[in-house]
Amino acid sequence: MRSTHLPLVVTILTFLAAFVLCSGQYPAMMSTRVVANLLTDNAFLGIVAVGMTFVILSGGIDLSVGSVIAFTGVFLAVILRDTSIHPLAAFALVLAMTIAFGAAMGAIIHYLDMPAFIVTLAGMFLARGLAYVLSTDSVPITHEFYDVLQSLYWKAPGGGRFRLTGMVMLATFIIGMVVAHRTRFGQNVYALGGGAQTARLMGVPLASTTIGIYALSGGLAGLAGIVFSLYTSAGYSLATVGVELDAIAAVVIGGTLLSGGSGFVAGTFFGILIMGLIQTYIVFDGTLSSWWTKIVIGGLLFAFILLQKGLTWATTARRKPLIDFAAP
Amino acid sequence: MTHGLQATLRRVAPQLMILAAVLLLNVIVFPDFFRIEFQNGRLFGNLVDVFNRGAPTALLCIGMTLVIATRGIDLSVGAVMAIAGATAASLVADGSGWVTALLGALAVGVLCGLWNGVLVAVLRIQPIVATLVLMVAGRGIAQLITEGTILTFVNPGLIHLGAGTVLGVPTPILIWIGLGALITLGVRRTALGMLVEAIGINESSSRLAGINSRVLLICVYLVTGFCAALAGVIVAADIKGADANNAGLWLELDAILAVVIGGNSLLGGRFSIVASLIGALIIQSVNSVILLSGLPPEFNLVIKALIIIAILVIQSPTVKHALYILRASAESAGVDTPAASASAPLAKSTETAR
Amino acid sequence: MSEDTRPVLSATGISKFFPGAIALDSVDLTLYPGEVHALLGENGAGKSTLIKCLTGAYRRDAGSIQLDGEEISPTSTQESQVHGIGTVYQEVNLLPNLSVAENLFLGRQPLRFGFVSQRRMQREARRILGGYGLRIHPAEPLSTFSVAVQQVVAIARAVELSGKVLILDEPTASLDRDEVEMLFKVIRQLKERGLAIVFITHFLDQVFEICDRATVLRNGRVVGTRELAHSSQTDVVHLMLGRQLESRVQDRAPQTAGKTLLEFKGIGRKGMLEPFDLAIREGEVVGLAGLLGSGRTETANLIFGAVPADQGEAWLRDQKIALTSPRDAIRHRFGLCPEDRKTDGIVGDLSVRENIILALQARQGWFRPLNKAKVNELAEAYVKALDIRLASLDMPIRFLSGGNQQKALLARWLATNPDFLILDEPTRGIDVGAHAEIIALIEGLREKGMALLVASSELEELVAYSTRVVVLRDRRQVCELHGEDISTRNIVAAIAQGHLEEVA
Amino acid sequence: ADLTIGFSQIGSESGWRAAETTVTKQEAEKRGIDLKFADAQQKQENQIKAIRSFIAQDVDAILLAPVVATGWDEVLEEAKDAEIPVLLLDRTVDASEDLYLTAVTSDLVHEGEVAGKWLVEEMAGKPCNVVELQGTTGSSPAIDRKKGFEQGIAGHDNLKIIRSQTGDFTRSQGKVVMESFLKAEGGANICALYAHNDDMAVGAIQAIKEAGLKPGQDIKIVSIDSVPDIHLAMAAGEANATIELTPNMAGPALDALEAYLSSGTTPPKWIQTESRLYTLKDDNQAVYEAKKGLGY
Ligand SMILES: Nc1ncnc2c1ncn2[C@@H]1O[C@H](COP(=O)(O)OP(=O)(O)OP(=O)(O)O)[C@@H](O)[C@H]1O
Ligand SMILES: Nc1ncnc2c1ncn2[C@@H]1O[C@H](COP(=O)(O)OP(=O)(O)OP(=O)(O)O)[C@@H](O)[C@H]1O
Ligand SMILES: [Mg+2]
Ligand SMILES: [Mg+2]
């Protein structure tokens, strides 16, 4: 095993241990229902988290994804309500728009040399603002094609429904893994995260890589928006507020360093599952008040970070005796 | 200290110009914008509102500037506001005086800062994640204190902090200007400012040069917690109640935005609190334009986004560099320009040290 | 190499302006196939800047570049790579988070069905690095290897990339003799193949060993190009400095040191450094010699408390002291000039002035700022004393050339007026003129009664100023040389065999 | 038999919401029901997750206070497949009626209309400039209460809405926005305020007072929800009317559920709660005392 794989292994072990523990307490959790729910309910989050993984690997951040999901949903709902365009064409259109939106943010980040945090924060305001302008109402989507897509599921013994959207998420993760680890673009992403100036001197095309990364993130946010619109059959401009933070948390729990350059797409998958598990556990428990819910989520987040930190320390402290400062 | 004043003025000149532009926008949508009256024992006017309503963001961005100077970020300030407000409210509800309530709230804020600081400086968790924990849990803690209700109070002393006036000037204005001045002097008249910048630029070097970076980092988060707590008390006092769920909601983003509009780099290092405070005023002026314009609320975010994008683009290193080149060529090439004032535009064309 | 062959690369009239400084002023450089061309000059002469302009890392302000007779104008390093120009920039510029193999192949990974083939990449990497005598696992992240290994990887990468021109900016600064030999072997092979090679270094011996011609820069201008076969070292030095280097005949450092200042007993740290004893007297320079990775830097860091020891004790003037952090050490008037100035030394965006007073200010405390006038006076004095070349004290230190940064760091510690100064590779990357100055400075400090511990890879230099030399091997002290025993030959032998007895 | 019921609540974004949670828990306890509570932090996706988890736990029924009307078909279908009745609280959903047992809600549009009609009556033909504090942009109470109010004052040209801006349902935004209204229009030009909830009205009252005007007299104030603090303000004559939105949605819902489970009586699809109008004529102090323990 390569030393760099350690955080990934830690994440996977943490998930498995937590799952076993939870099932011990609530046997109903060991059902196909819960497993299927984990996939379906987190599908949109998983898809944006793949994009977020790329962004964070490159040392950036994308705060706009939650708003882009909402915008995508509203746009689809409105266009399917007001025109007779086929949903597939609408999907293509909206994906093109979100990719362009992401690419534009990437271009601003690169050419104007501005921090990603701020550019994507402005993007977050803009995307949600545009969603409001399209419609403040929640708009149902009633196209029959949506019913067709929603009826595509496999009902496992035990009642779990493995839906199309869950499969889309799995596919996104697999493609994301291949792109990250087996393509030149992926290697450039890691290079950028290792140090933009060094990467530049080594001949990494900064402009196209940066733009590509944010276009990818934007595109995946668009895809997540489509999945979300399938999930709720509606578009709503207030939806998915704060999803960017969930995605970032999932990526970090998955073992990717926010400072960039180190991490795995697969880790994010387990990060998503861990977050989903936390929520499922809280619902199964069912006794937490509104405020304790928040405190417990924060506490568990902290516990996971600490666990990861501890394991990483325990294993690397011996390897690198020199002072090592975590860059924020 | 006229030299220092001049340097500060030079540093904040772009921010002042942007502020002037946004205020002008206000005047365009509402010609009476600058009218200030003395009414009902207090200054009354839109400009006063900008200063008054900007108080929470301004207070937050004092601490946030320092945290960002150390290469950190604090996402929890909004939640800390809620906790502090709830603490103050519950203390007066239990019969304490306003001084106790204020001190209690500030102590809780400092405690939150300590928590963040320890996570960042001792456990070495990346600041954005470390403070995310309190951002998520903090609102829960605040609600735990208020038990989910809006805890209203009638204590005049506490209310005075948010809604009162001193010689006609709303108290929050005095508080943020006072604290801003105090902390600016505190870091610039001592060595603290330089040391904070040093650990933000290169912590390893700074530590080896003998700076107690760990303690300094914790202190910076303490200050941020303090500022957030003060903002929380003001916000609660303003509405005579602690609203755990909504107090300071998403205000951390405004504070970060203010710091960046103030021309401070998110990568740490050189900072200017005064510039951040002007940044906070700029954001509040943008909000004021939106309110005064009378457009339907669904346009609020788009307008805000567009104005902010415009401001950020004007301030971006590339555009600054282009402007610098333009100016330099206008002044005819080859003129010796002092390296320090030109250092910012250089960032683009040169290999930076990280 | 003959004059009638056509040049591979010729640059004419290259200029580069920085605010307050003209880094390059109409520089010409011509490279012929099959030649090794030295680029020489003092610190801050503009060597690195010229390289960056040639390879598109900087945008040049004037001038033209011709490659094989065709005009080129690279706007990115990627472009120059495509043109067949491979470059090792000053300071290792590789990505620590990527594996060795990924670093070697970044941008030109072997593909299989359009996907990067990790397996082939590692096989190739193993083969290439084997050619440099390096047998390491190429899938491990680069950061797990020492600076020397990283430097070799950087060179290997540049060599692979260079179809026509190979540029090496101070590649040997952190290499050992053996590795330098290996590098020279590779350079000779490339020369055979007709590549043009630019070699930048401050080691004149190496220049005369491997180079055919030399172009000398001074203050951003070419002051001459010489056939090295027909020139002498003094010639070249004269050309570089614009004056003669007064060669002071060095007296042997006297053995009459003062009282014992410091005593370390059984100090060490598991997995890092074997416990050792060391006593240092006032007015004494203790040299630390050893190969790369032998533990010199570790010794320095341990004594300074940068990495606290987990065993043993330290005594200062017969009082037991705790050394758990650099702050402890500084309080006891220690100073450490670190090896890696970029990551552990300079605070890049602070001004030169602030960098110079940083340690002094940190010791004074947060609330007692140094008086502005005193700061200026201090900074100006050191800039003058150490001949630091800068446009203004207000400029960020990262804009200084490497050698000048090193001097500013020295100034930082001298300003604290330490009793005990640890210097880790104080002359790395420093030009011949400054080199002599720093040696003189060390002598001067010793004469004033300061105790010094100097780790260096340059044995001649160690011999010149040390009153005592401690030799390290495999993170353990193996022997100590005194007085007449201190000689390059003896040190080399001690390093090789580990015992002085066997040497003598 | 002991029932286990899952309750998916939106969150605790307002005092009213907290009261609804408290009352629901009280009602469940009264009936000996084991209530599984899930707070969705204002996110629909969390509510869907919660419902799915309830289904996985095989609860006997599900109470859902939907954050938004759309997007429930799929998950309600799953509940139906699992034969778990779903009861909606305080808002209906855009889904086929056979997917839920019943919805206990008030009529949001009606509430707005009551407020509008009250103002029409109060002004009795006198010209009046109204400013409106909207709820969170895009939320259905904001949309419906705006629509209802406009319906209520339709045809009365003496009433004119001159400014309308969102106050995010919060006290502090209510105050901020009211301040800007007062400046932009001049306090004397505003004759009435309509706020989509009481919290914003409470904030606005403070702004009016700070501007040197008398809330309730110089500017009439009508708002919705009937939270304790607005009754306190009304008792002091600083607000004029509020329309009650009862936090006790669970009581009728659980009654209907118990009837359905024991005797199979199918309840009506919509159980409408009363939208009672409180004015200065009521004993507001008493209402305040009665309500303040409910966790508002
Ligand atoms: N970004 C910059 N801004 C201002 N001045 C700069 C910048 N970069 C380099 N310089 C100046 O340009 C000059 C040439 O620097 P350069 O790094 O090329 O020197 P060098 O010959 O490589 O020196 P060394 O041997 O120390 O590496 C120096 O005086 C340096 O201070
Ligand atoms: N086998 C190894 N595996 C991983 N890291 C190693 C290994 N050997 C050495 N290192 C790294 O190399 C560094 C030690 O080499 P370094 O060259 O700094 O030692 P040194 O004796 O101070 O030599 P010099 O001062 O000449 O560089 C340490 O930082 C250590 O992390
Ligand atoms: Mg150089
Ligand atoms: Mg060393």
From TrEMBL, chain A:
Record keywords: Cell membrane, Membrane, Transmembrane, Transmembrane helix
Annotated membrane topology: Multi-pass membrane protein
Pfam families in the record: BPD_transp_2 (PF02653)
Alphabetized CDD domains for the sequence: TM_PBP1_transp_AraH_like (cd06579)
Domain of life: Bacteria
Major localisation: membrane
Subcellular location(s) per record: Cell membrane
Keyword Membrane found: yes
Positions of transmembrane segments: 34-56, 63-80, 86-109, 116-135, 162-180, 201-228, 290-311
PANTHER family listed in its UniProt record: ABC TRANSPORTER PERMEASE PROTEIN YPHD-RELATED-RELATED, INNER MEMBRANE ABC TRANSPORTER PERMEASE PROTEIN YJFF
Cross-referenced NCBIfam families: PRK11618.1
Name of protein: Galactofuranose ABC transporter, permease protein YjfF
Species whose genome carries this gene: Roseibium aestuarii
Underlying gene: yjfF
From TrEMBL, chain B:
Coiled-coil stretches noted in the UniProt entry, renumbered to this chain: none
Localization, UniProt: Cell membrane
First and last residue of the signal peptide: none
Membrane topology reported for the UniProt record: Multi-pass membrane protein
Domain of life: Bacteria
Phylogenetic placement of the source organism: Bacteria, Pseudomonadati, Pseudomonadota, Alphaproteobacteria, Hyphomicrobiales
The protein, known as: ABC transporter permease
InterPro entries the record matches: ABC_transp_permease
Keywords associated with the record: Cell membrane, Membrane, Transmembrane, Transmembrane helix
Transmembrane found in the keyword field: yes
Transmembrane parts of this sequence: 12-30, 50-68, 75-93, 99-121, 128-146, 158-185, 215-237, 249-267, 274-295, 301-319
Automatic annotation (TrEMBL), chain C:
Domain ABC transporter: 9-244, 247-499
Keyword Nucleotide-binding recorded: yes
Entry's Gene Ontology molecular function annotations: ATP binding
Residues that span the membrane, as ranges: none
UniProt key word Transport: yes
UniProt KW keywords: ATP-binding, Nucleotide-binding, Repeat, Sugar transport, Transport
Family of this protein: Belongs to the ABC transporter superfamily.
PANTHER family: CARBOHYDRATE TRANSPORT ATP-BINDING PROTEIN MG119-RELATED, GALACTOFURANOSE TRANSPORTER ATP-BINDING PROTEIN YTFR
Protein's recorded name: Sugar ABC transporter ATP-binding protein
Organism of this sequence: Roseibium aestuarii
